[in-house]
Amino acid sequence: MLEELLNMQTIQLQQQVSDWKEAIQVAAKPLVDLGTVEERYVDAMIEAIETNGPYVVITPGVAIPHARPEQGVRSLSMSLLKLDEAVDFAPDKPVRLIIILAAVDNDSHLRALIQLTQLLNEPANIEEILSTSDKSVLMEYVHKYSKEEAE
To answer: DSSP for 63-80?
Structure first.
């Protein structure tokens, strides 16, 4: 499942962005380009954080921005942006890994989210992902955790 969503097309590596809003825009661009989300979904994710604070920062260095399915999701999709330089989602919340989650309903994304959670639960995995500049290393992690949950 995770493997179907995160691939060479939806994973990006970038040096830096100007702020957290740009981080979300850049991270979501592959999904907008693929047509799985509308531009208004990107705006909705930014608005959600402006309204509710940086609740999307789920673990140090990692944020999973998302919004409601009816706010512009066309099909289940996910994208990942890895930054070399952290961007602050709040004064005490620097983030280098932004994973956009676009769910079409309340449960079709859960398997992928479980696999992603298993991957992110290992601090060594996050360190390795943050230290690489090779997309294929990220794909190996995605592949490994897509398999593990399936077994």
So the answer is: E-----GGGTB-S-EEEE
- The answer for residues whose C-beta is within 8 angstroms of residue 19's C-beta and 6 or more apart is 87, 88
pLDDT tens figures, 55-92: 999 999 999 999 999 999 999 999 999 999 999 999 99
Nearest to 128 by CA among 142, 111, 115, 113: 142
Q: Provide, for the chain, the percentages of residues in helix, strand and coil under a 3-state DSSP scheme, each rounded to the nearest 5.
A: 50, 20, 30
**Residues 6+ away with beta carbon under 8 Å from 31:** 10, 37, 41, 77, 78, 79, 100, 102
pLDDT in tens, 27-64: 999 999 999 999 999 999 999 999 999 999 999 999 99
Residues with catalytic annotation? 66
